Amino acid sequence: QVQLVESGGGLVQAGGSLRLSCATSGRTSSTYEMGWFRQAPGKEREFVARIRWSSGITYYADSVKGRFTIGRDNAKNTVYLQMNRLKPEDTAVYYCAARRLIDRDFNSWGQGTQVTVSS
Question: How far is CA 14 from CA 9, 87, 99, in A?
């Protein structure tokens, strides 16, 4: 079982930046993929970005491509989400997630961190 703890959320003006962190513990390894998801009020949770521990290959939702960057620090077992040029529609609770590459779905989740972007 993987434990995930997010941090770094907050309130920022449109056009600003925030950096989210996800500290991992437990049995993460190179066979894992890490992801960021978000859920806005009244909406379903949606995919934001993901990265494979071993290769560093990344994938992004179209809505954040070019503005957000996902990265990882293997030595610190931490995954980051750098968010630039934030928009009010980026306001949501952001969740870190993990899955083994052999699993279809992400099945370990953090508690979430609130990101609010004011216009």
Answer: 14, 5, 32
CB 90, CB 83: distance < 8 Å: yes
Distance CA 42, CA 107 (A): 22
pLDDT tens, the chain, 119 aa long: 789 999 999 999 999 999 999 999 866 677 899 999 999 999 999 999 999 988 999 999 999 999 999 999 988 889 999 999 999 999 999 999 999 999 999 999 999 999 999 99
Distances (CA, A) of 118 to 24, 82, 98, 113: 30, 18, 30, 16
